[in-house]
Design goal:
Number of strands: 7
Number of helices: 9
Distance between the termini: 39 Å
Order of helices and strands: HHEHEHEEHEHHEHHE
Strand order of the largest sheet: 3-2-1-4-5-7-6
Mean pLDDT: 93
Strand content: 15-25%
Keywords: Methyltransferase, Transferase
CATH topology of one domain: Rossmann fold
CATH class of one domain: Alpha Beta
GO molecular function: S-adenosylmethionine-dependent methyltransferase activity
InterPro entries: Methyltransf_11, Methyltransf_Superfamily, SAM-dependent_MTases_sf
Radius of gyration: 19 Å
Protein name: SAM-dependent methyltransferase
Helix content: 40-55%
């Protein structure tokens, strides 16, 4: 699955190396995930960024997609990554030193660019962390020029699947993925959000992000298990029995653990 469960540990003001390093590692793992890479490839193809355009990456993280946009817009264009976390922004700037990607502090609810000033907006796995995601999408619509395009990619944590195990127990475990995100159903809401912001949907896509079927992602599983016990959905004995079932399945190469990420590409009709 290569994606950590979102939660309160995602702090926008982190600068301590001991706190920035895990965030960087998680983002790097997501960059390497085949499902993430396929969904990104689809979104970039649908956006069809051209040389000379102005592109904005909202929630740039370590800057991987800002650099992708910078390569597409070329020397006559502009690719600006907006990232509120100063630690991640420093990583992005260091990794992008030899590119045309640029970065600035900013908030998804108050983007630091004028109205109708950009051709392309990219926003990946940001809305799930926001208590007011609709406001963020409206803000992206504000900065798009007429005919400009936006790509929103986000996880829907209610699609978390664990197998094997009895359905009641695996549901109790998987439901823990909903407790750590401000907006856990983000993926399924994207189409409605861009439409409400006055944008026109051009295409939709999705990819399941899989955990290795030969090993258990114990840090994630234990977070889910502890959450289920804390919420009274499982006893410790049932939780531990579920752990044993998943471990046995992994030893036999038959574990399934996944979550689905969705995407929408739209344009400003003005």
């Amino acid at each position: 699955m290569a994606q950590t469960r979102p939660g309160p540990g995602f702090r926008t003001h982190t600068t301590e190396p001991a706190e920035v390093a895990p965030l960087t590692g998680a983002l790097d793992a997501q960059d390497a995930n085949p499902g993430v890479r396929r969904l990104r490839a689809w979104a970039h193809a649908a956006l069809a960024v051209k040389g000379g355009e102005r592109a904005l990456d909202v929630g740039a993280g370590t800057g991987s997609q800002t650099r992708e946009l910078a390569a597409a817009v070329g020397p006559e264009g502009l690719a600006l990554g907006v990232e509120p976390n100063p630690g991640l922004r420093a990583v992005a700037e260091e990794r992008s030193a030899d590119t045309r990607a640029r970065f600035t502090h900013g908030d998804a609810l108050a983007l630091p660019v004028p109205d109708a000033s950009v051709d392309v907006v990219w926003c990946e796995r940001v809305l799930q962390h926001l208590a007011e995601p609709d406001r963020a999408v409206a803000e992206m619509a504000r900065v798009l020029r007429p005919g400009g395009r936006v790509a929103l990619l986000d996880t829907d944590w209610a699609t978390t699947v664990l197998h094997p195990g009895d359905p009641e127990t695996t549901w109790a475990l998987a439901s823990g993925a909903l407790t750590g995100a401000a907006n856990p159903y983000s993926g399924r809401r994207l189409v409605g959000q861009v439409t409400a912001a006055g944008l026109v949907v051009d295409d939709r896509g999705s990819e399941a992000l899989f955990q290795d079927h030969r090993s258990v992602a114990w840090p994630i599983i234990r977070m889910l298990g502890d959450s289920a016990v804390h919420r009274g959905l499982l006893t410790e004995d049932r939780r531990d029995a579920a752990y044993a079932t998943l471990a046995e399945a992994a030893e036999q190469g038959g574990l399934h653990m996944s979550v689905t990420m969705f995407g929408v590409v739209a344009h400003h009709p003005g």
